[in-house]
Design goal:
A hairpin with a 3-residue loop joins strand 1 and strand 2. The chain starts with 10 loop residues before the first strand and ends with a helix. It is built from two helices and three strands; from the N terminus they run E-E-E-H-H. The protein has two domains: about 40 residues, no CATH class; about 35 residues, no CATH class. It is elongated. It is of the alpha+beta class. Strands 1-2-3 form a three-stranded antiparallel sheet, with no helix packed on it. Its main location: cytoplasm. This is Translational regulator CsrA. It comes from Paenibacillus radicis (ex Gao et al. 2016). It is found in: Cytoplasm. One of its GO terms (cellular component) is cytosol.
């Protein structure tokens, strides 16, 4: 892992087409801006981990489509 120190207004380049800029620093929070080509996906890590965990839970689930349909019908009646 590369560790850098940057100040507000400074940037880091990754390759030729990704730029990460420090926009604002307030207390423990840092606002960053990312310029990257549209085909490069950018997602917060905590969201990625959450979706990954949900996918793992879904793979381990023993519930069937019929079970889900029955649950939905019960909810619809109430």
């Amino acid at each position: 892992m590369l560790v850098l120190t940057r100040k507000r207004g400074e940037s880091v380049l990754i390759g030729d087409d990704i730029e990460i800029s420090i926009l604002e620093i307030v207390g423990d929070s840092i606002k960053i801006g990312i310029k990257a080509p549209g085909e490069i996906g950018i997602i917060r890590k905590e969201l990625y981990v959450s979706v990954e965990k949900m996918n793992q839970n879904a793979q381990q689930s023993t519930i069937t489509v019929a079970d889900l349909k029955n649950q939905f019908e019960k909810i619809k009646k109430n």
